[in-house]
Amino acid sequence: MAIIIRLDVMLAKRKMSMTELSERVGVTMANLSILKNGKAKAVRFSTLEAICEVLDCQPGDILEYEKEESL
């Protein structure tokens, strides 16, 4: 996957647990885990906005594009 999710990095920087983020954002732990593990096919802008608000960060602090190597 070319989009890398850095949610765990921001959580560590903010000293926040997934449980606390889940409660404050209003997203289930299961959905946050899917996002954190890079298994999500999409993320709503409203969810991304809420995560950024709670973590006091920019979307680019959480999402990173990495060009895939072609064989």
UniProtKB/TrEMBL annotation:
Organism lineage string: Bacteria, Bacillati, Bacillota, Bacilli, Bacillales
GO MF term set: DNA binding
PROSITE patterns cross-referenced by the UniProt entry: HTH_CROC1 (PS50943)
Domain HTH cro/C1-type, first and last residues per copy: 13-62
The organism's place on the tree of life at top rank: Bacteria
Transmembrane region(s): none
InterPro entries given in the database record: Cro/C1-type_HTH (IPR001387), Lambda_DNA-bd_dom_sf (IPR010982)
Matching Pfam families: HTH_26 (PF13443)
Protein name per the record: HTH-type transcriptional regulator
